[in-house]
Amino acid sequence: MKILVIEDEPGLSDALCQTLRRENWSAEARYDGESGLDEALTGIYDAIILDVMLPRRDGFSVLRELRREKLGTPVLMLTARAELDSRVEGLDAGADYYLTKPFEMRELLACLRAITRRPEDTADAELQAGDLVLRTHQGGIYCAATGKFVKMSVKELHLLELLMKNQGRILEKEQLFERVWGLESDSEYNNIEVYISFLRKKLNFVGSAVRIKATRGIGYSLEAEA
Ligand code: CA
After folding, report:
1. Counting CB atoms within 10 angstroms of each CB, which of 71, 73, 123, 131 has the fewest?
2. What is the distance in A from the centroid of ligand 1 to the CA of 80?
3. pTM of this structure
4. What is the Å distance from ligand 1's center to 8 Cα?
5. Does the pLDDT of residue 68 top 70, yes or no?
6. Which of 196, 179, 215, 193 is nearest to 42 (CA)?
7. Distance 97 CA to ligand 1 centre (A)
8. Per residue in 74-90, pLDDT tens?
């Protein structure tokens, strides 16, 4: 997993990054709200650890902006115990979990595992966009308008899931490639194009009105008809 740590206390940030790397996760640190937000908006992270009190832009503002940009990345917020009252504000702003300082690294790791649990870990996970329903437990997609279902490969499911979670937002080819195939992959970069064409064929097959739009030279976005 790839985790973004937005925390201005260097000591805590280092400790967090070291802990994450010991779990064989990759960790990237940012020390203020503005650069943290920019980095988070790349969309390449599996989770974001976000401090509340940050220079240049506070954690709540960062979180609200992320959600406004329709970024669905799970966010774990950190705060001092004195700021506990702000807990409600954090949850309203779209935080997935709230941890008060000081905390144990064990606890933090457990939270991260909980908020990043992928849909396939949940027996009846479904993701919906327009008439399209992604049924991870059945390994395929279902169109609510036509009642048709089609099976998909694991990579197709993963790719479509990313697009559905970021509905209407352009995901860069590089981001998609990194998320689906991983950095160490030997796969060809043009795999993305091939898989997008597979996805389109399957959307057509089930008769969904959902479209995958290509933005030349940039990437792809999922458009669900209103
Ligand atoms: Ca702070």
Report:
1. 123
2. 8
3. 0.55
4. 5
5. yes
6. 179
7. 17
8. 899 998 766 666 555 65
CA of 25 to the centre of ligand 1 (A): 23
**Pair (21, 47) in one structural domain:** yes
Two tokens at 130? 């327009």
Dihedral sign from CA coordinates of 198, 168, 1, 92: negative
CA of 122 to the centre of ligand 1 (A): 34
Using CA atoms, how far apart are residues 111 and 86, in angstroms rounded to an integer? 19
Same domain, yes or no: 194 and 160: yes
More confident residue, 95 or 134: 134
Tell how far the Cα of 114 is from the centroid of ligand 1, in angstroms: 24
Residue 170 DSSP label: P
pLDDT digit string (tens) for 86-113?
Answer: 555 656 667 777 888 888 999 899 888 8
Ligand 1 centre and the CA of 102: distance in Å?
12
Number of domains in the chain: 2
